[in-house]
Write a structure and sequence with these properties.
The structure holds 2 protein chains of 2 kinds. Chain A has 16 helices and 22 strands. Chain A is an alpha+beta fold. Chain A has 4 domains: 100 residues, Rossmann fold (3-Layer(aba) Sandwich); 61 residues, ATP-grasp fold, A domain (Dna Ligase, domain 1), CATH 3.30.1490.20; 242 residues, D-amino Acid Aminotransferase, Chain A, domain 1; 29 residues, no CATH class. In chain B, a hairpin with a 2-residue loop joins strand 6 and strand 7. Classes of the chains: A alpha+beta, B mainly beta.
């Protein structure tokens, strides 16, 4: 087995990988920037090496520096975590060239999946369903009408040379074709100098469903079922579940079959995720592949019992995947809530500061992957995700209650967090009955801002807080006047605040 | 006798106690038990039920309370101070003034308003870049821009003044 792994990441995922290394008897080495000199992950690793200034481009993304450190400390392998350099094909290539093992796919696989249109073509070739539409440019109204009739309304009419949301139009029925076609054509000609258009089916109210896969160096592929990731804000997931309430056995078969085919199509090695859109009729369409470990991997670990990080390390070392497909079953239900330092009421703006109180939830069925502790400072330099709370129970209904209990126990002061929003989602009927889609936060939460979403603070809680505040303030005043109105016998007079 | 006024989300509570252990909150009598469970963590027994709060001191007269994921601020003043505060507020209308500060350190990309401009509650005041994201800062009140303290293109510390609306 590897003797030493260099982890090129920070925060909770660095901690997650350090923990796997410790359990496997591998020395964990970590990089740190100025801002992370005293961070939780830096303190937890066996070895920590200074990588550079706080700004990521000069530390966690500084490829020459990282490779130099890896060689100097004789690391056998590099684990990239997620984000940063994890999907950078050029970095992976340089690691491969240096003789150090990259824990993840080959540079070639990453390159294939990184070019999204090329990926679409490869997927189609290998029987993975993509969003239906044309690949050939259309120039006449007749051809547009025919394609619309073939794939069904609504459709998206897009400029072949377009991008960035420009030259795009939704068509709901036949009466809109003519004007949409003319306007998109002329817009495309003006904006891109090319009036060719193509058509893609508009997926109505989709869910984001993804499938975890593993591939090893011996040609084995496995899937680890689906994850439901539709609860998103700013196009970033905040609550994930496994299994999905909306995926039945047939759909699961379809999804996992497509996912394994997608992995095979690019000779994928390691842990990867195939993302799909699923429409209301449970049709699934390939979206993209994430060629790395996902933030939400713990929900899959809890329902399958498989340690994905250990699998990654073993696969990179050359071992085969530790289980066969038929041995894998879904046990119970898992939810992950991402706790972010942010202001839910103010466009989810990041919140920074020094943590001055920190207490994690515990008890049955609760796992917390945290990147911070009570000594941490949340800086402006990195992603504001503080911790992931993951709960497990035999069924979804019980598990939602367990997650609410866990979030109630999670106490953090010093930065604003999204815990109240997470609780709001968990109590929402559409979330509970499963009828949500990727626009849930946009359609259900945003319209309630600024003051129609919060639950009233119960009277008794207001009274209790007021009483405590009055005692604390009273103590302040006492100290100032140095009087001794509160006798020793009164327990509330005791010094209970610093 | 001690008399304090607590303000939570603009609602005021009148608290009276004299050292006997009995507390009067707006006419309701409590016989509470306070316990310091840990630093910044106080529990209170009210009517035989226990409530655990995590508490932070914001400044001389404000405390932040966290209870089961819900965070709120309690402003606490002696009755005398509260009365004085009300008088000042009435005379200078200080409640209609709103000083917008940087919620986080970052680069001030843009200020959308000039002195004298009318501004609606919820309207974007400025754009602050932090954590690689552009964050819009919105006005909490409707009013007129009275003063601008920060310049576009400068780096701001957390809580530095940006704009005064009145």
């Amino acid at each position: 087995m590897f003797k030493k792994i260099l982890i090129v990441n920070r925060g909770e995922i660095a901690v997650r990988i350090i923990r796997a290394c410790k359990e496997m008897g591998i020395i964990s080495a970590i990089l740190y920037s100025d801002a992370d000199k005293n961070s939780f992950h830096t303190r937890m690793a066996d070895e920590a090496y200074y990588a550079g200034p706080s700004i990521a481009s000069e530390s966690y993304l500084n490829i020459p520096k990282i490779l130099e450190i890896a060689k100097t400390i004789s690391a056998d392998a590099i684990h990239p975590g997620y984000g940063f350099l994890s999907e950078n094909a050029s970095f992976i290539q340089q690691v491969e060239n240096s003789g150090i093992v990259f824990i993840g796919p080959t540079a070639q696989s990453v390159k294939f999946m990184g070019e999204k249109t090329a990926a679409r073509t490869i997927m189609q070739k290998h029987g993975v369903p993509i969003v239906p539409g044309t690949v050939e440019p259309l120039t006449t109204m007749e051809s547009v009408k025919k394609v619309c009739a073939d794939i069904g309304f609504p459709v998206m009419l897009k400029a072949s040379a377009g991008g960035g949301g420009k030259g795009m139009r939704k068509i709901d029925d036949e009466s809109q074709i003519e004007s949409a076609f003319q306007r998109t054509k002329s817009e495309a000609a003006k904006s891109f100098g090319n009036d060719a258009v193509y058509i893609e089916k508009f997926i109505v109210n989709p869910k984001h469903i993804e499938v975890q896969i593993l591939g090893d160096k011996h040609g084995n592929y496995r899937h680890l079922f689906e994850r439901e990731c539709s609860i998103q804000r700013r196009h970033q997931k905040i609550i994930e579940e496994a299994p999905s309430i909306s995926v039945d056995a047939d759909t699961r078969k379809k999804l996992t079959f497509a996912a394994v085919n997608a992995a095979k199509a690019v000779d994928y090695i390691g842990a990867g995720t195939i993302e799909f859109l699923m429409d209301e009729e449970k049709n699934v369409y390939f979206l993209e592949m994430n060629t790395r470990l996902q933030v939400e991997h713990p929900v899959t670990e809890l329902i399958t019992g498989i340690d994905l990080v250990k699998e990654q390390i073993n696969i990179a070392f050359g071992k085969p995947i530790s289980f066969v497909q038929n041995d894998l079953k879904i046990y119970g239900h898992a939810i992950e809530c991402r706790v972010y330092a942010e202001d839910s009421e103010n466009n989810f703006a990041p919140s920074t500061g020094k943590i001055n109180y920190f207490k994690l939830p515990a008890g049955p069925g609760i796992r917390v992957d945290s990147g911070i502790d009570e000594f941490s400072e949340v800086s402006i330099y990195y992603d504001p995700m503080l911790a992931k709370v993951i709960t497990y129970a035999t069924n979804r209904k019980d598990n939602i209650q367990r997650m609410i209990r866990a979030l109630n126990e999670f106490k953090i002061l010093g930065v604003k967090t999204n815990i109240e929003l997470l609780k709001w989602v968990l109590n929402n009927n559409k979330f509970i009955n499963g009828t949500f889609n990727i626009d849930f936060i946009e359609n259900e939460f945003i319209p309630l801002l600024p003051d129609k979403w919060q639950t009233e603070i119960p009277e008794i809680i207001q009274d209790g807080a007021s009483l405590i505040a009055s005692i604390l303030k009273h103590k302040d005043n006492e100290l100032k006047t140095n009087s001794n109105l509160i006798s020793e016998n009164n327990k509330w007079g005791k010094s209970f605040y610093e | 006798m001690n008399n304090y006024i607590a303000t939570i989300n603009k609602v005021k509570k009148n608290i009276i106690f004299n050292g006997s252990g009995k507390f009067d909150v707006d006419g309701k009598i409590y016989n509470p038990n306070f316990n310091e469970a840990a630093k910044n963590c106080i529990s209170i027994d009210l009517n035989n039920k226990k409530y655990n709060f995590a508490i932070e001191r914001i400044d001389d007269e404000r405390f932040g309370f966290l209870f089961e994921g819900q965070y709120f601020v309690v402003t606490i003043r002696t009755k005398l101070k509260e009365t004085a505060h009300e008088v000042i507020k009435q005379r200078f209308g200080s409640d209609n003034h709103n000083l917008i500060k940087a919620p986080m350190p970052g680069l001030l990309l843009k200020i959308n308003k000039s002195v004298g401009d009318e501004i609606e509650a919820g309207e974007s005041v400025a754009i602050l870049e932090a954590m690689k994201m552009e964050n819009e800062i919105h006005s909490p009140v409707t009013g007129k821009v009275l003063e601008i303290f920060a310049e576009e293109g400068t780096n701001l510390e957390k809580n530095s003044k940006i704009i005064l609306i009145g």
